[in-house]
TrEMBL record:
Molecular functions per Gene Ontology: ATP binding; ligase activity; metal ion binding
Organism: Glonium stellatum
UniProt domain ATP-grasp: residue ranges: 234-465
Pfam family, one: ATPgrasp_N
Name of this protein: Glutathione synthetase ATP-binding domain-like protein
PROSITE patterns registered for this protein in UniProt: ATP_GRASP (PS50975)
Highest rank taxon of the organism: Eukaryota
Keyword ATP-binding carried by entry: yes
PANTHER family (UniProt xref): ATP-GRASP ENZYME FSQD (PTHR43585:SF2), FUMIPYRROLE BIOSYNTHESIS PROTEIN C (PTHR43585)
Keyword Ligase: yes
Assigned keywords, A-Z: ATP-binding, Ligase, Nucleotide-binding
């Protein structure tokens, strides 16, 4: 279609299947082509689990065109282009279709709708930090039954979001001895068959696994979840325990630390609760006084549980690059792995004290560590997952690389991984921090979906209903790897008070449109009138998060991030 006045054209493509089969995910075109340079719109012509028929005839007659339209699984409209650039754009799109769609998006055997019980349907974040979860379920043909507390934003059958789930069941989600049976009873009470059960909440992983065992539904062993949720139990299964030990109080600490042993402690040390998520109560200590204070704080973290857990793990601080690694496994085999760089936190600085925290500051995808170290990370973490007894699912893991050939250094005000100046002759060693037997956080999952084409939410749902064929098919990333360099940039408060700004994250983009071009999403975690905890507060929080991408590369991306940090501003009352 040409625009004579402007000398521009708009082109479209139909996607015609060459084989018969059954669609793995109805919106796979829209999801896999997201971010493609020359594409303006993508249309899906199929429904979940639909059978498709091939159409091999050439379009010589009007009837041929009609047949092609009826067989098409989707369509693409390109961005408006000049006539001179059209052919280049069409070739580029064809190339991207091969890159992004070279996976089994149609299966030979029938695909059936499933029903999944989702325990905890995202507490207070609402739709903006949940939409990709429910989009995945819709595209897969999985009907969601939400098990949640009364008053949840998905409960009202007349709300704008009621269509996201098939039904809502009120359940007390308090974690105690009867929690698994309450979940199992809620599932049994539903008037339609439920094929699986899952949760995205750390606190409910063990209980939901126990409920699945009671119901005879697909799950990894509840024992594996118990081990993985305890940082000490996970640590002692590793070969490099580095003198890690566990205490439940300062008194027990002093009993274990004889006068002679006290001098031999390999400071700096990391102190953290055995049960915990995020960076809460994690501290780096450099002397005995700080150690005592950190143990006292960490042991008090879980004292409000029905069965309080005061246990604290004490282990070596590893001075090396930290990474997040997300692995997708089926029957013990790694189907997909992506690794990103987790940039230094306040607690990593040379002069850090026990008061400095380990709240994340930035994650960059993909990692720039050498391929040898990346291979070692994948292999080591894979074995750690298997040692815990897991065989299938999505696993969000954290580790550090000791004796890495890279270290974080600043150059021209940009901090990044750079080659070590001082050579050492020890092989890189992967030191596991933790294994979370669940998908990563919402933004990290969204980054992987856009960059690689693999949707962890979809993978975990398919595991929960034991759909092996679709799980393995959709675990295939793009042929050429990530389509861009991307980052999750977190802004931490530098002062506390009452927030005066309405939405500081979005205000920055409104005032700096040249920065906004490369920002996919942003979010202010604290809004006007809410309390901003200062850097000395016991509460850990971010002010804002930005999801930024660059087609140019890592250096360009980090320059953009430096500008965001420089220009970010918030006012206090």
């Amino acid at each position: 279609m040409a625009d004579a006045a402007e000398g521009s054209v708009v082109a479209a493509k139909l996607l015609i299947p060459q084989k018969n089969g059954f669609i793995v995910r109805a919106d796979f075109l829209e999801r896999r082509l997201e971010g493609c340079e020359f594409i303006a719109e993508v249309f899906n012509f199929v429904s979940p689990c639909q059978e498709i028929k091939s159409y091999a005839s050439n379009a010589h007659t009007f009837q041929d065109f009609v047949g092609m339209f009826h067989s098409a699984i989707g369509g693409i409209i390109l961005k408006r282009l000049s006539k001179d650039s059209l052919q280049r754009a069409l070739s580029a799109v064809d190339d991207e279709l091969i890159n992004r769609l070279s996976f089994p998006w149609a299966l030979p055997d029938p695909v059936y709708r499933k029903r999944l019980a989702l325990v905890e349907g995202r507490r207070s974040t609402g739709y903006d930090l949940s939409k990709r979860i429910y989009e995945a379920a819709s595209g897969l043909g999985i009907d969601i039954v939400v098990l949640e507390m009364a008053g949840h934003w998905l409960e009202d059958d007349t709300s704008l979001f009621a269509h996201l789930r098939e039904s809502f069941i009120r359940v007390d989600l308090t974690v105690n001895d009867s929690f698994p049976e309450r979940i199992a009873a809620a599932v049994r009470s539903y008037d339609k068959p439920i094929d699986g059960i899952m949760t995205l909440s750390d606190g409910h992983l063990v209980g939901v696994a126990k409920a699945a065992e009671l119901l005879g539904m697909p799950t990894c062993s509840a024992r594996s979840f118990v081990l993985s949720s305890d940082k000490y139990e996970t640590r002692i299964l590793e070969s490099n325990t580095d003198q890690a030990f566990r205490v439940a109080s300062v008194k027990e600490l002093n009993e274990k630390l004889s006068a002679g042993f006290k001098q031999q402690l390999p400071y700096p040390l990391i102190v953290k609760p055995c049960l915990g998520c995020g960076s809460d109560c994690v501290a780096k200590v450099t002397n005995y006084t700080e150690l005592v204070q950190a143990v006292e704080k960490a042991s008090a973290r879980n004292n409000e549980l029905q069965h309080p857990n005061f246990n604290v793990v004490i282990e070596s601080y590893i001075d090396g690059p930290e990474v997040d690694a997300n692995l997708v496994l089926w029957n013990g085999k790694v189907l997909f792995c992506e690794i990103c760089d987790d940039f230094p936190c306040a607690g990593d600085s040379a002069g850090a004290t026990a008061q400095d925290n380990f709240l994340e500051t930035q994650m960059v995808y993909p990692s720039s560590l050498p391929s040898k170290e990346l291979s070692a990370i994948e292999s080591s973490i894979h074995q750690s997952i298997l040692r815990l007894g897991f065989r299938s699912g999505v696993f969000h893991c954290e580790a550090r690389v000791r004796y890495s050939s890279m270290k974080y250094e600043a150059a021209n005000d940009i901090v990044d991984l750079r080659p070590q100046r001082e050579l050492h002759f020890l092989d890189p060693e992967v030191f596991l921090i933790e294994i979370n037997a669940r998908v990563p956080g919402y933004h990290c999952t969204a980054v992987a979906q856009l960059a690689y084409g693999v949707d962890y939410f979809a993978q975990q749902m398919l595991f929960a209903v034991h759909d092996e064929a679709r799980f393995t098919a959709l675990a295939n990333g793009f042929l050429r790897g990530p389509q861009h360099t991307s980052t999750i940039l977190d802004i931490c408060p530098d002062r506390g008070g009452i927030m005066k700004s309405d939405d500081p994250a979005r205000e920055l983009l409104q005032n700096n449109p040249e920065i906004a071009v490369n920002v996919i999403e942003c979010r202010s975690w604290i809004r006007k009138g809410e309390i901003v905890p200062g850097p000395d507060s016991k509460l850990l929080c971010w002010l804002a998060t930005y999801w930024v991408v660059s087609k140019i590369g890592r250096k360009d991306l980090l320059k953009q991030c430096a500008e965001i940090r420089k220009r970010f501003h918030y006012e206090l009352e």
